[in-house]
């Protein structure tokens, strides 16, 4: 039996929406304190039927096969969704879309979901929009885990350059 599903390997070999959005409306940096990996998310926000939607989204991930595959599939799921819908995308949903992840790699799917949520938080904050208590909680967690990630990187001498 293969360690990763076919779908995981497809997204790893040919990631969708990888890169930067130079004039992004918001961006986020999140980390995984278990391994020191990091992800940046960029979003452009548009409007559809009077609702704010994710018009475009790109990512850069410094991480493992599962981190890159989940980043890629998260951007696919989030594109076109309202900010409220996208804020509810969970790492479990992302992993399911990939046909599952080995239990030992489930923590990698946290990075993508929390990067998306943090970019939505940053957008809403910059526009003075109402932020739900759930999104506020996710933001606080993302900030705390980013600090821990940086400590892990220092401890193991991991240098994330040009990221
Ligand atoms: Fe770090 Fe997968 S091992 S995100």
Quick one: biggest sheet? 3 strands, antiparallel
Question: Roughly what is the average pLDDT, rounded to an integer?
Answer: 95
**Cα distance spanning the termini:** 35 Å
- The CATH C-level name is Alpha Beta
- Percentage of residues in DSSP E strands: 15-25%
What is the annotated CATH architecture? Alpha-Beta Complex
Which structural class should the secondary elements be placed in?
A: alpha+beta
Lateral arrangement of strands in the main beta sheet: 1-2-3
What's the Cα radius of gyration? 15 Å
Output the helix-strand order: HEEEHHHHH
Protein described:
With 163 residues, the protein is an alpha+beta fold. It has one domain: Sufe protein. Chain: A, CATH 3.90.1010.10. The protein has helices spanning 6-13, 65-78, 83-87, 91-97, 108-126, 133-156; strands at 26-32, 37-48, 51-62. A three-stranded antiparallel beta sheet has the order 1-2-3. It is globular, with a radius of gyration of 15 Å. The protein starts with 5 loop residues before the first helix and ends in a 7-residue tail after the last helix. It binds FE2/S2 (inorganic) cluster. Residues 32, 35, 37, 63-64, 66-67, 108, 111 line the site of FE2/S2 (inorganic) cluster.
Topology:
Blueprint: H1 6-13, E1 26-32, E2 37-48, E3 51-62, H2 65-78, H3 83-87, H4 91-97, H5 108-126, H6 133-156
Antiparallel strand pairs: 1-2, 2-3
Residues 32, 35, 37, 63-64, 66-67, 108, 111 line the site of FE2/S2 (inorganic) cluster (FES).
């Amino acid at each position: 039996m293969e360690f990763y599903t076919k779908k995981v390997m497809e997204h790893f070999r040919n990631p969708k929406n990888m890169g930067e959005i130079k004039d992004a409306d918001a961006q986020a940096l999140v980390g995984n304190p278990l391994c020191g990996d990091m992800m940046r998310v960029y979003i452009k926000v548009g409007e559809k039927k009077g609702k704010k939607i994710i018009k475009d989204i790109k990512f850069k991930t410094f991480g493992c096969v599962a981190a890159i595959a989940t980043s890629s599939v998260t951007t696919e799921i989030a594109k076109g969704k309202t900010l409220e819908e996208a804020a509810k995308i969970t790492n479990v949903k992302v992993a399911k879309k990939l046909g599952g992840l080995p239990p030992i790699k489930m923590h990698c799917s946290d990075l993508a979901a929390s990067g998306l949520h943090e970019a939505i938080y940053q957008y809403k904050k910059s526009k003075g929009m109402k932020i739900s208590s759930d999104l506020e909680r996710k933001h606080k967690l993302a900030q705390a885990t980013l600090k821990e990630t940086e400590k892990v990187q220092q401890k193991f001498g991991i240098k994330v350059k040009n990221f």
